[in-house]
Each structure stands twice: as C-alpha cells, then as structure tokens.
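Record type: monomer structure entry
Structure origin: computed from sequence
Chain ID: A
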Amino acid sequence: MIGDRVQLIELLFRLLIVQLSLYLCCLNRAGGQAGPPAPAACAKYCPAGKPPASLG
C-alpha cells in the first residue's frame, strides 16, 4: 500500500515537472530573444496559444 502511494507521488511529480518545463519553454521563447518563433508543440501548451509574456 505504501509502495503504491510512493509510485503515485513520483508519477504526479514527473507530470508536474513536464508541465512546468513546457511552461518555462514558452516564457523563455517570449523573452524577446533572437531566434525562430516558439515551436508549435510549445505554443500548444501556452494559454490562448500565446506565450505568457505576450498576454496583455
């Protein structure tokens, strides 16, 4: 029982890390850096399809 909880916590932690890294990817791309626009895979996870820094 305890082992199942540990595995569930590890899975949730990994999912959180993936979501956070995708969000940070959007922030990084929106920072005015030179280079190509944000990839579609990253923009897909940003609110309203735009990087957070470009909102408002």
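Annotation 1: The helical segments are 2-29, 40-43.
Annotation 2: The chain has two helices and no strands.
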